[in-house]
Amino acid sequence: MTLSPSSAATTLGRLARDERGNIAVIFAITLLPVLSFVGAAIDYSRAAHARTAMQGALDSAALMVAKNLSDGKITADQVPTAGAAYFAALYTHTGSQNVKASATYTANNGGKGSTVTMAASGEIKSQFMQIAGFPTLDFSVGSTSTWGNNLLRIALVLDNTGSMGGTKISNLKTASKNLVDKLGALAKTPGDVMFSVIPFASAVNVGIDKVSATWLRWDLWDPRSEDSSSNSYCSSGRSSWYAMAMCKGHGYTWSHSVGSPSTSNWNGCVTDRDQSYDVSDALPSALTTQFVADQDPYCPAKLLALTSTASTVKSTIDAMSANGGTNQTIGLHWGWLSLLQQAPLNAPAEDVNNVYQHVIILFTDGQNTVNRWNGDGSMTSSSTERGKIDTRMEALCTAVKAKNTTIYTVQLDDGTGVSPVLPKCASGSANFFMLSNPSEIDAAFTQIGTSISKLRVSK
């Protein structure tokens, strides 16, 4: 059939206006970049997975080499070979190729610690990026294990309250002394590992030898404390053990006339200092920042400032006995203060060439029941009162952790369940231990000791 000129022109016009075939053309044009983007995401994901696995293997290899070297199982000359062997055994990613690893040792210099530094690299064959001209994707990682420069400053904050009687305090003493032996063995030279011991009940005992300390406050002190058997000096309406500071802090009236008593009658106890200094490391200067001398009749064993003498630490632990209500906050506060190079306890100076790990281990067998302002020292106080005490303690925990101090909390259940504050106080969930039986105390302290003594890996 022959088209007339007019029919041909009409047909060509319709063809020029027809867009139905453009979709296939557009799809063909966009298919390549779409596939490239999707393929790149897949290839990069594979490379990231391989790199993550390599990092984990390298960290473990660096730790193993450093431990073997520090234990004398290998020599410095064997570090490169041992590092490569450990890494090869640990890195099993099947998609990696051209994998290389190296290890170097740097001896302790100027107290900065000995190090094993490892590096590793590899590549994966790309499945999609080849289209864009990248046949392989490279990756590399590094890890450094440092030891010998992490010196330990550890505060043992230990519950000495009345509910700790019998096997509880006996097992606590054994576990604490075992921990001192375990961590003390890490010391290469005297002072590498130091301990303070803070026995606590409703108050802490700083010792009568501190009677002339300028950081003590005496305006809330009376040499007489409440005697439940005969005397009643506090208008609390109940036969109570409150001393003057506790009585007034709770808003009651102290009826005994203090006069001008001799401070030689002081039993060494202090209670919480004024809020909010009770949860801070502010230096004691003016009255509100000073530590309140108390006459708590259930004054616990005298605390011990930081020392590296294991026998002194153990004798302090052995002197502990069970009496009084539970003020975890004041125990933790003095545990923190014992690690600071300032009044009131003036921890030993720290060498700028070393790295110091500051650790607090807080053990208790129950809930907070009292402080200077709230609670009656037993679980008969209202949950609202106990909540106020826990709120103070949580503020203190936050302040302590903000100053690069690691906190472990250990709770022995007294039948009241998990504390509202102790899990949050710990430096992470792995640092909180909930125990159901006194026989578990030693295992918990052993686990804490292992955690503290692990070599530090820095990347």
TrEMBL record:
Keywords: Membrane, Transmembrane, Transmembrane helix. The chain crosses the membrane at residues 21-42. Residues 21-66 form the Putative Flp pilus-assembly TadG-like N-terminal domain. InterPro entries: Tad_N (IPR028087), vWFA_dom_sf (IPR036465). Pfam families: Tad. SUPFAM superfamilies: vWA-like. This is Putative Flp pilus-assembly TadG-like N-terminal domain-containing protein.
